[in-house]
Amino acid sequence: MQGRGERRGILEVTRSAEVPLAAHALEAVKGAVEDSGLAMADIDGLATYPELPATGHAVVDGVTIVSVNCMMTMLKLPNLAWHVQVETVNIGGAVQQAVNALLAGVCKYAVVWRAMHNPKGTYQNLPGTYAQGATQFTAPYGFGGPGQGMAVAYTRWLEQHHQSREKMATLAVTQRRHSHMNPHAYFCGQPLTREDYLSSRMVAYPFCLYDCDIPVQGAVAVVLTTADRARDLRPRPAYIAGYGQRLAFEVAGRIGSLSSYMEGGRSSSRLTWERSGFSPKDVDVAQIYDGFSASVIYGLESYGFCKEGEALDFIQDGRMELDGELPLNTFGGSLGTGRIHGLWHIIEGALQASGRAGERQVKDVNVSFVGASAPIVQGTTFIFVKEPY
Amino acid sequence: MSDWSKVTRPIPVPNEWTKPFWDAAKRGVLALQRCQTCKHFQHPPYATCVQLHGDRSRVRARQRQGRDLRLHDHVPRGRQAIRLGRFPTRASSWSSTTRREPCWPANLLEAPYTDAKVGRRVEVVFEPLNDDFTLPQFRLARDAK
């Protein structure tokens, strides 16, 4: 696979929406383009995944989502040649589609953004009086948001492997500490102790408050181009050595089982390892999606970083620290930055590979792994490398 | 017409594929769809077999009353769910064991969540929501181990 260059975006995260989401997305896109040294007129490709994951709220383009059409309207790019708005593979799929478009030669410089809105009121708004469609089999039983569904699989994992949820405190506390080195993170400067985690209220057992990323409004963006073009730009790029996406199917309308998570992660990472030629042992730093903490556990195991049932032990003893055996979610993860989905994981993976992660830079990074979404329905994985591949 | 104000759970709105399920539940029967081609049971109900998605994969409602039902995963209710749904505080939930089996979330009644263990047998309890709808629920089977 040929290498692709990558440039990072600038981002802004707030708890509530003071300005329309489109303004956040536009700021992120402009920042990414400026960071790359390109002019906006050079951008000829656009891609995003615009979903609003909050249920029971209106989808309003420019306010609660930012579609490709909305971005085209704002940017009025004179040389636009390609765009896509993905649905089945989350934001990682948008990045992968941009890579494909660049390799196909249908565009030269593509921007991918992810903009997330935090609606007023309850984020997961259960149906009030009536439950229609698929919710008629979940809402009457009290299942409203994805966290409750994911908690089912996590409970299964804990019981199957005779593990205790208390060990997850290490993940939450370490990622919070990492977020203090990320000035854009929502929780930058707000410490979290193990005691805070263990005493926090339960949201959906075994998920407590700090197992769940906080809903925010914000946006991130990244510029992608081919390796030969990236060499002429500033600053130093990262190179994509391979990617994969989930291939295992999931039955429609079902709450995902633990086996679905594991099969999804294995199928996506297998492609990534095969295409890149690397293995988990080669990875110097990893970003694994953590909208809910258990996704990291499924990821570590299904991607091959440790054996099944051992992930909660794997992250102990400093192993996920910046100087540990596998530095993990070095930008704070979604638990530290807020709910922006997986593009921030992808950007951090690229920053670590290019040596541009600043205070949180891991030493001597050559191979940087990213699992950009929960390894179930929409799982995607990437390998970034320091040198052209 | 029911007195909807007395109902605390969202009321299902059936469509042509889910109506047989709710009609059967009202009669005290747990009726799952079964593909006429590959013979597997599925839930929630859908227009075609979700394994085959072919035009020959017709599905029919078949009765399956409390046999071979076992707890797979369980999630004791957290504060959020109780507040939003106003459900029994001792309830927990389950889903089936593999992705090829029928599966749906539900509440385990009449037991603390600590009794909800993977593999335990459960039996169906039919809980009226109002005059029109009955919700299939579950409790530990009398001889549950």
Description of the structure:
The complex is a heterodimer of chains A (389) and B (145). By secondary structure, chain A is of the alpha+beta class. Chain A has one domain: Thiolase/Chalcone synthase (Peroxisomal Thiolase, Chain A, domain 1). Helices cover 32% and strands 16% of the residues of chain A. Chain A has 12 helices and 13 strands. In chain A, strands 1, 2, 3, 4, 5, 9, 10, 11, 12 and 13 form a 10-stranded mixed beta sheet that branches. In chain A, strands 7-8 form a two-stranded antiparallel sheet. The N terminus of chain A is likely disordered. Chain B is of the alpha+beta class and 145 residues long. Chain B has 2 domains: 50 residues, no CATH class; 79 residues. Chain B contains 2 helices and 7 strands. In chain B, strands 3-2-4 form a 3-stranded antiparallel beta sheet. The interface between A and B is large, with 45 and 49 residues.
- Main sheet of chain B? 3 strands, antiparallel
Name the chain pair whose interface involves the most residues. A-B, 45 and 49 residues
- Strand-pairing-aware structural class of chain A: alpha+beta
Q: Report the C-alpha radius of gyration of chain B, rounded.
A: 16 Å
Termini separation of chain A comes to 8 Å
The total tally of domains of chain A equals 1
Gap from first CA to last CA of chain B: 42 Å
What is the count of DSSP helices of chain A, taking H or I runs of 4+ residues? 12
Q: Which second-level CATH architecture of chain A applies?
A: 3-Layer(aba) Sandwich
